[in-house]
Specification:
Length: 203
């Protein structure tokens, strides 16, 4: 019997995302059939299509961020870039992913959760830079309108309890993912910028 609530919640998240992929895919297939039948293009069809694409992008991103990390599994560089690009395609926050090669899925889970944290700290938009050299990761963002002084960031850096809501639960999930993988980040917080570095056991 599972007694680890983090494991149970991640499996539930994986199941929800998995089950939602099929109906979203069916909507897109239905739209393609309508287009093949000769139906005239319209604003309504474009809206449905864009909504389906956006839903699929979010499911792909959240399935890894909130779902089971799948210890030992890898994600290809192509898949990682597609997941990040599609998720942030129409957002004010952009991600500069300067990471080559395939990566272990548990590490990408951590990075996606951290991207969500950084996104929360950039309410007016900005760019998040992600780099990796060997087993050393670095994530940073700098914007004059940044908000990296929230209680959630305080908790991430100091280890104190975090007041959570559905809109900020990724902060605790990121902290838990780092702890589970025995990672202690080095934080550097300035008034309008945030940078963290950490090292993983597997390059």
């Amino acid at each position: 019997m599972y007694k680890d609530i983090e494991t149970i919640s991640s499996l539930i998240s994986s199941r929800i995302c998995h089950d939602m992929v099929s109906p979203v895919g069916a909507i897109r297939n239905g739209l393609e059939l309508l287009e093949m039948s000769g139906i005239a293009p319209s604003i309504e069809l474009d809206l449905i299509n864009q909504s389906a694409l956006n839903a699929n992008a979010r499911l792909s991103f959240l399935r890894i961020a909130f779902g089971d990390a799948g210890a030992g599994s890898m994600l290809s560089q192509t898949e990682i870039i597609a997941i990040i690009d599609n998720y942030y395609k129409n957002k004010r926050v952009q991600v500069d992913w300067q990471v080559a090669r395939d990566q272990p899925r548990p590490q990408i889970k951590i990075l996606l959760l951290l991207l969500m944290c950084f996104e929360t700290g950039l309410p007016y938009g900005g760019e998040i830079l992600v780099r990796k050299a060997d087993s050393n990761w670095a994530v940073s963002a700098n914007d004059e309108r940044a908000a990296f002084d929230s209680p959630q960031w305080d908790g991430m850096i100091t280890g104190q309890d975090i007041a959570l809501s559905s809109a900020t639960v990724h902060f605790e999930l990121a902290r838990m993912a780092l702890a589970v993988n025995d990672i202690t980040p080095e934080w550097r917080r300035m008034p309008n910028s945030m940078r963290l570095q950490f090292q993983t056991k597997v390059a």
